[in-house]
Amino acid sequence: MSVTFERRLTRDWDDPGVIAIDGYRAKGGYEALKNALTKEPAAIIDTVKASGLRGRGGAGFPAGVKWSFVPTTTGKPTYVVVNFDESEPGTCNNRELVDRDPHRLLEGTAIAALAIGCRTAFIYVRGEYLAQSLVLGTAIGEAYEAGFLGTGIAGSDVDLDIVLHRGAGAYICGEETALLNSLEGFRGQPRLRPPFPAVEGLYASPTVINNVETLMSVPDIVLRGPEWFRELGTEKSPGTKLFTISGKVERPGNYELPLGTPLRVLLEDVAGGVLGGRSLKAWTPGGSSTPLLTADHIDTPLDYESVAAAGSLLGTGAVMVLDDTDCVVDAAQRMTRFYANESCGKCTPCREGTWWAERVLGRIAEGYGHPEDLPVMRDMGKHIMFRAFCALADGAAAVIDSSLKHFSEEFEEHVQLGRCPLQVEHEEVAV
Ligand SMILES: Cc1cc2nc3c(=O)[nH]c(=O)nc-3n(C[C@H](O)[C@H](O)[C@H](O)COP(=O)(O)O)c2cc1C
To answer: What is the pTM of this model?
Structure first.
């Protein structure tokens, strides 16, 4: 099975000219913004709602519905905040989108701003993305000079500023409320919800926070219409998505595909199959915080509903591939180490739970595990980390729970044999 369609979000990637504003405008750039300026804010929101565009940052919440939650009669300013923290392991689609087409992000952000009456928008960039900050800084400068930002954008009576803010490199600052704290100059730790940011966000004002890919999908929706957007994808997960595939795969990278494309097509037809022709053992559908799936799930359509039905989450669409030589216990330990390092420390279940989980997984991986470690790990996921303050710990629990669910024998063998069964098998083959 293969997939043929015209690339949409990435259609201009082969033309480096679009990085500069003249090249972007030559391809119709900023026409959607001009079009949006002729519409009432409610009409923009209705268009985005009708498209069914779902947030690409992980949760898949409908973008238009989120925008409609913003109260516009509070007398407070409203804000749009672009979440460009992109720290989910395995995920790098936002980075390439900005590298190759930065003005599309500015245009999408400006349209979102029009929709909620925002006059100052922020782009929160992951600290490590220095190159992308420079690309965006240049693009913002060009947009001001061309009159698409600043006073009276595109000849209208609407003013809009975009402020670029570089984070300091903390995974938790991708969580929307921790991001807001960080943007305000406080420690990047999550806030209690409710109130949700749409009602009380940045500087206690109504705020829309969207992922880079979500906002970059908006200009086409405004210009070409919701029906056009719905031509690809599924009824409940419309449009295309930029999937990142990495790990044991022949051609890792970012690939745009209609939502609902089965993993088999992404892995075998698009990305060239498992590295060296080996067999698929496990994969994440949406980064390390989404439950692992197995080779039995290779025909799962990559859309929000189908991946959930298979027992995982589409998340950021970051597929990480493990082959039959990979030790699942080792993989789970590495991923858990990431969460232990990145836990912000605000709540005890996450701060202590991730630290202990990494330790226990480490001793199982190295062959020093105790039989009672396995029920402890199961308990940890269900009863400790899911009680944490924010979803960072849910992500940490997801890899532990799912690896124990699908590969319990491999865990038990580590404990019984006092070593990794796979490692020895492959050492023997090598001899
Ligand atoms: C620990 C954690 C990290 C997150 N990191 C990101 C991130 O880097 N980028 C992102 O867009 N969303 C991230 N999210 C999701 C955001 O909280 C939020 O849902 C998202 O930015 C909303 O945008 P969307 O509706 O366009 O997807 C993270 C969530 C959690 C719990």
So the answer is: 0.96
